[in-house]
Structure formats: C-alpha cells, structure tokens
Amino acid sequence: MADSSPDLFCIGNLTVDESVQPDGTRTEALGGDAVFAALAARLAGGRAGWLAPIGTDLPAPLAARLDAAGLSLDQPRRDLATVRNVVRYAADGGRTWHLVRGEEHFERMSVHPADVPPAVLAARGLLVLAMSLDAQLALTPWLRRHSSATIYQDLQEDYLAGHEAELLALAGHCDAFLPSEAEATHLAGTKDPVAAARHFAGLGPRVVVVKLAERGCLVVEDGAVTEVAAETVEPVDPTGAGDAFCGAFAAVHLATGDAVAAARAAVRVAALAVRGPGVVPLLDAVAAEVRA
C-alpha cells in the first residue's frame, strides 16, 4: 500500500480574517496561512499536512470541513480564542494587518519548537509560514538543526522595520526563500526585486522566489532569473494568495526539484485561492477532488 502520510508540513496559524477592500467592501472568513498553504499543496498534487495551534472556538462545521479535506485536527491545543485579523487593502496594492486580540495572543497561538512532533521533523519538506516574529525567529533555525527536511521560508511583512538583520538571517537557514516583493525590496534595500533576489541567493538558499502579486513571481536559481506571469483573475478576497502560492510551490518543488515548474503551478493555485472568501475556494476544490 502506498504511503499516505504527509511528506510536506505547512507550519503557521489558523485564523479568522476580515478583509477590507479599498471601496470598503468587507469579507469575513476562515483563513490562516497553514490552512491556505496545505490545501494549495494538496491541489498541486502534494501529500501535505499542517501544523497550527487550534483554539477553543473553532466552529464544528468548519472543523468537519477541514477534516474532510484531509487536514488532521490532531493539532496543538490552546485554551485561547482563535486569532482574528482585519486586513485592509490600499488602492496601490499595499495592505495592513490588525491583530484584533493583540500581539501577545498571536505569539501564544503561533508554533514554537515544543509544538513540533516527531512526524513533522521526519517529513521531507517543511514550509514555515508567517507567524509571530519571535516564534518564527526561533522555529526556523531549530528546524534546521533538528530535521534534514527541505525548508521553505515565508515571511510576515508587518515585522520588517527594525528586524532586518534577524529576518535576513532566516535566509541562511532555509533551502527556498519565498518573500513578497515588499518584503524583498525592504530587506535588500533596493527597489529592484531581481537585485533583491540575487542578494538573498548569496545568503545560502538554493532557490529564491519573489512573489509579485498580480504580476506573478520571479525565480532565481543557480544564477538564472525566470519570470513567471500570473493568471488573470478578478479577486474576491486576496488575503491568502501568497500562502496558497507558497504551499503549491513547496509541494511541486519537493516532488520534482524544478523551481520554475513549481512557480507555474503556484500561480495557478493562487489564482483559484482569491476567487472567494477565505479558504472556501480551496476547500471546495479539495472536496471536489475527494468526491471524484
């Protein structure tokens, strides 16, 4: 019988997100980078699991949908409410995040080394997504020391200012560095995302992918730069697009070793992720595959 255990774990948060568009339109839905990424990885053909603390107030119907999609509810438990975010989008494409329950709550609801079970350490791939700053700075180097997995690293854009050196150091602990354009240009001190990607490549990762939102992404590997265009889509809720991209990229790259093919798969899945509120488009797509 084929092994059905996950070979990729997406590590991050489970959240409830309210997105506010420039015209004032508000959409609230279940989200969380670990959920977006794991569902996207499954849609890209990966055997993906997730690792994220679950609070006391996850509605039973949503829990059932996650379980039906193959996302195990055997997660670290916290005697706390679920993380809630308000994500405000500006007309220029920028966004700001507001943690409704505060930074300390977010820290406690993020993944720390003590939360990581042996099955996760034994996986072939680990995607570390945006969490609280202290949790992420502690977790990635710890995973590097305790696992032989390929490590994929995403960032949390709200922690850039004043923490540049610590966040740059994460690039040296991962195999694939996956910043957004805003994160890349800020950390590298340049407006040129290609120059930023080349700078990160010099810090140690084998692959650097800079996410360019509706313009797609660029991939730097072995000195070569490849631009991958995004799919045209009218977004309903773009909150999880980057997380979905990272999950799909990690799944395909882990399976094939081909970073450009992984990026092409990732832009396709990211385009699906924005077609409805929160994780609903990805949950629906995974459910359809399960029924097929």
TrEMBL record:
Keywords: Kinase, Transferase. It comes from the Bacteria. Residues 22-280 form the Carbohydrate kinase PfkB domain. One of its GO terms (molecular function) is kinase activity. It holds the Pfam family PfkB. PROSITE patterns: PFKB_KINASES_2. GO terms for cellular component: cytosol. This is Ribokinase.
